[in-house]
Amino acid sequence: MVCVTNESIIIDEEFRRLIPALSGEERNGLEINLQRDGCMDPLVVWAEHGILLDGHNRKELCDKYGIDYPVKEISLPDREAAADWIDKRQLGRRNLSLDQMSLLRGRRYNRLKQGHGGDRKSEESRDRNDRSITSEKLGAEYGVGCATIRRDGQYADAVEKLGIQQEAANREITAPRKEVIITARHLPDNPSPEQLEEARESVTRPHVANNSGDNEWYTPSKYIDRTKAVMGGVDLDPASNEAANKIVRATEYYTADEDGLNQPWTGRVFMNPPYSQPLIQRFCEKLSNEYQSGNVTQAVVLVNNATETRWFQILLSAASAVCFPAGRIRFWHPRKISAPLQGQAFIYFGSNRESFIDQFKSMGGVCRVAR
């Protein structure tokens, strides 16, 4: 047992990152109350180690203004128990977002189903009935269904795998929880720093439902290399310009001035179309028609993964396979910095489906399109 004094309290950064940050308004209110009334609620400290578990914001502000604060010590067996105590305490706050509540519940579920410290068996090795009891217990405690608790656990696992615990706790995750889970699921077990960074950015950058702005963004060479490995080359890029074609190196390309929609399309096509409406739908319709008529023999299309749109479904109606990258594509431009607003998809048309799967499977999930 450690003798705890106000001066000896330890701030553990791992524990601190578990705690959702206060909004600016909440912090200002706390600051005013502390200056006016003093610190009424005790800071809670893990007695065995002198580590602060609750009251980080109060301690910081009290230290700033020289305000005394009471301290309460509690005894806990290990770090897992201490982390679970923090999450349970935070779930009593009234100002949490749905994502924050899901994260906290999910972390509690994952700990409890693994035996809460001590015996940390994997989920696969545990009896299903044990996990069901855990989800039922937490579901009853927080007024949600068992399935919700299990999804919370998947979300918490995904947040941990992506290394975005602080962002998730502080409401900085812009992607829906389901997308965070899918992104983490498609990430390799030992991702490269580049793969991890792309995946992290894909769930923390702003999302949009529709793209109506800048069409001038070009495809990085590593994706063009994969495309050429599948098709053996690129005969035509129907939505390009001189700068972009230095990377694509298509035999022929059409610029905006030449209006590729009114030009002949033949052979092996790579297309990164303009993403604004109505142009994107017209380019997708043109490609689908030219492929089904036999003029286009193979194609790889890079578009946003807007599966609910008519133009995406038009592409799927003739496609052979689709790759959903684990992270957003960082397009390039000689004078602008890319900030992709949502995830993308590579859609393949042609008979070399297995080659496409082999070339693109390391980027994310690849699906065969059934007819």
Mean pLDDT, to the nearest integer, reads 85
Tell me, briefly, the overall form.
Answer: elongated
What share of the residues lie within helices?
40-55%
Q: Which structural class fits the helix and strand makeup? A: alpha/beta
Our count of helices gives 15
Biggest pleated-sheet summary: 5 strands, mixed
**Low-pLDDT runs:** 117-126, 206-216, 332-340
List the helices and strands and how they pair.
Blueprint lengths: L12 H5 L6 H14 L5 E4 L4 E4 L1 H10 L5 E4 L4 H12 L7 H16 L14 H15 L3 H17 L2 H5 L7 H9 L7 H12 L16 H11 L4 E2 L4 H7 L3 E2 L13 E5 L7 H15 L2 E9 L5 H7 L4 E5 L18 E6 L3 H8 L3 E5 L3
Parallel strand pairs: 1-3, 4-5, 6-7
Antiparallel strand pairs: 1-2, 7-9, 8-9, 8-10
Helix pairs in contact: 2-3, 4-5, 5-6, 5-7, 6-7, 7-9, 11-15, 13-14
Model description:
With 371 residues, this protein is α/β, with parallel strands linked by helices. Helix content is 44%, strand content 12%. It contains 15 helices and ten strands. It has helices at residues 13-17, 24-37, 56-65, 79-90, 98-113, 128-142, 146-162, 165-169, 177-185, 193-204, 221-231, 242-248, 279-293, 310-316, 353-360, and strands at residues 43-46, 51-54, 71-74, 236-237, 252-253, 267-271, 296-304, 321-325, 344-349, 364-368. The chain has a five-stranded mixed sheet with strand order 6-7-9-8-10, sandwiched between helices. It has a three-stranded mixed sheet with strand order 2-1-3. The protein has a two-stranded parallel sheet with strand order 4-5. Helix 13 packs parallel to helix 14 (310-316). It is elongated. The protein starts with 12 loop residues before the first helix and ends with a strand. 36% of the residues are buried.
